[in-house]
Every structure is written in C-alpha cells, then in structure tokens.
Write a structure and sequence with these properties.
Order of helices and strands: EHEEHEHHHHHH
Strand content: 5-15%
Strand order of the largest sheet: 1-2-3-4
Oligomer: single chain
Radius of gyration: 20 Å
Mean pLDDT: 95
Distance between the termini: 40 Å
Length: 205
C-alpha cells in the first residue's frame, strides 16, 4: 500500500521517520487546480521502497495524471522551486521600476506562457537552435552574464511597498470581491487548454 501526502513543501522524511510503515510513505503533490492541471510530483523519503514509488507513479499515470519522480528530497520540490525563481524575478522587475505589475503578467501570459504550455525549457532550447549543444554554444555566455545581474531574493513582505503596488494595480481589474468569478474563469480556460493538449500532444515524425 502507498501512503501519500499531498504536501507542497514538507519533505516526507520530516513527518514519516517514526512511522511504523515509513518505507511506504512518499509525497504525491498535485498542482492547483488538480482537476485541470495534471502534474503530480512524487517525492520519496530516503527510506521509501523503490517499488512503492514506482507503484505510485503507475497509478497516477493510470488515472490520467502526469507524474514526475524526484530522485531525492529538496526544499520546495521541483514545481515550486521553478515557480519561485520566476516569481522572484518578476518581483524584482517591479521593485526595480523596470516593469509595471500589469506588464509583468503580460510577459508571462503572452510570452513565456504560450510557449511553455506545450513544451518545457529543455525542448524549447533544443528547438531554438540546432539542438541543446548548439544553443549552449550560442547563448550560454549571454545567459550567464544576464543571470549575474539578478538581485537578492526578495522578502515579499506583506504590506511592503512592492506588495502594495502589485495589489493596488491588480485589484483595479480583479477586485477581491470578484476572486471567485475570476477563479471560475481561470478554470474554464484551463479546461479548454486541457482539451486542446489532449488533441494535439501526439507528435508524429
């Protein structure tokens, strides 16, 4: 039997060490909203039996989810680490007066978002050059130089200047009282995207 927690950040070793059946415990972290976003992160503890992880992955695949398996525990798992890296830079761009909050959202929804809806970053760079090695040959130095200019990790203080600026701008179009309606709008769009991906995700050579 698989014993799974849906924790988004708590590593399984933190809560399973003293359990009788700790070898059967792992994290199966879904993405919100899970009924339209199929990813599930599987995170075994150091003592989780390999066949338990394999069984959990097979089950997730059987019910139509898209499972990934972390080879070891790491804070935030995979999705949140990537998400936080993006959010940190978006926060810095507002804090440094480079972009407005509205323009940051536009960069994502009309730039990176459509591109990443159907492929990940590694397939993207593979297609943007003549393979990954070609991409690194062309762009690695530039990426490194730009990355060296990234600032410190923002604290995202509630009620701080940047937090207030972002909230003040976004509530102009999405007031707090209308969050439920906007979430439904989001879910409807995600449902349509899910249908589209099911129809077009089969690449034929």
């Amino acid at each position: 039997m698989v014993l799974a927690s849906s924790s988004s950040c708590i590593p399984p070793s933190q809560f399973s060490e003293n359990l009788t059946h700790r070898a059967q415990v792992l994290v199966a972290h879904p993405v919100n909203p899970p009924y339209f976003v199929p990813l599930v992160e599987l995170v075994p503890a150091p003592w989780t039996l390999p066949h338990i992880t394999d069984k959990a992955r097979a089950y997730q695949t059987k019910i139509g989810q898209s499972a990934v398996t972390l080879r070891r525990e790491i804070p935030g798992f995979a999705l949140n680490r990537i998400q936080y890296a993006i959010l940190n830079e978006c926060w810095r761009l507002v804090a440094d007066k480079v972009l407005s909050p509205e323009d940051v959202d536009t960069v994502m929804k009309d730039g990176l978002g459509p591109r990443y809806a159907f492929m990940g970053p590694f397939e993207t760079i593979h297609l943007n050059a003549e393979g990954v090695t070609s991409y690194c040959d062309r762009y690695a130095d530039t990426i490194y130089r730009v990355s060296e200019t990234f600032g410190p990790t923002p604290t995202m203080t509630p009620g701080g200047d940047v937090c207030n600026e972002i909230e003040k701008e976004i509530v102009k179009t999405i007031p707090i009282a209308e969050l439920a309606a906007r979430r439904q709008w989001r879910d409807d769009r995600l449902a349509e995207l899910s249908k589209l991906k099911r129809n077009v995700n089969h690449f034929s050579h």
